[in-house]
Amino acid sequence: MVSSSRQQIRLFRVFGITVFLHWSWFFVAAYELDQRSGGYSALGWNIAEYVALFAIVLLHEFGHSLACRQVGGTASEIILWPMGGVAFVSPPPRPGAVLWSIAAGPLVNVALVILLAVANPFLHELSISRSAHHFLNQLWIINLGLLIFNLLPVYPLDGGQILRALLWFPLGRAHSLTVAAVIGVIGSLGLVGLALWMASFWIGLMAAFILAQCWRGFQEAQRLRDAAR
Ligand SMILES: [Zn+2]
After folding, report:
1. Residue 73 CB: number of other CB atoms within 10 A?
2. Which of 132, 151, 170 is the last residue of a domain?
3. Last residue of one domain, picked from the residues 134, 151, 168
């Protein structure tokens, strides 16, 4: 899948993968930073935390892209947008290859959990400011939060796609996608309830995105069944 690059700003290219930033990111970043007070002494720390969130997202997306390449698939673009990141990966249509391409993203967060757990006690020993301490704690929480959210078994989140790849082995390509999309719909309805309960626009938007992707999943599963006839 290749994105339209008209609405994106090209940031850089590394390992043959071009990283784009959607223009809307700046508007949401300005809004989010305006809303946060945080536990920092200066705005600079708040900006650093927001940028660090997307740096972690970017590392996660590189995990997907490089794993996809490793199993013979194509991956040439990553787009960062206000809701996170998207790696445009196209792994070979084999369950093992798809499983590795998807699992490698959360595995980057697992590696960061271990790295931060090892490094944090040493960094906290240094005579750093209260804001620096808070920043390190926030990094830990952000990374762990991203890992847990991504592993929810709700298609098309990574957890849902990992579940789909695992079901692919016994159920086949089309049926595994249908089952994952049904679970995704149930999960998105749960998110709709959560969005209403918390009066959260962002959770509502996420639920709508998940629902739309599940619909695409159903259509893709139907296309696969038709092609197999
Ligand atoms: Zn991911």
Report:
1. 20
2. 151
3. 151
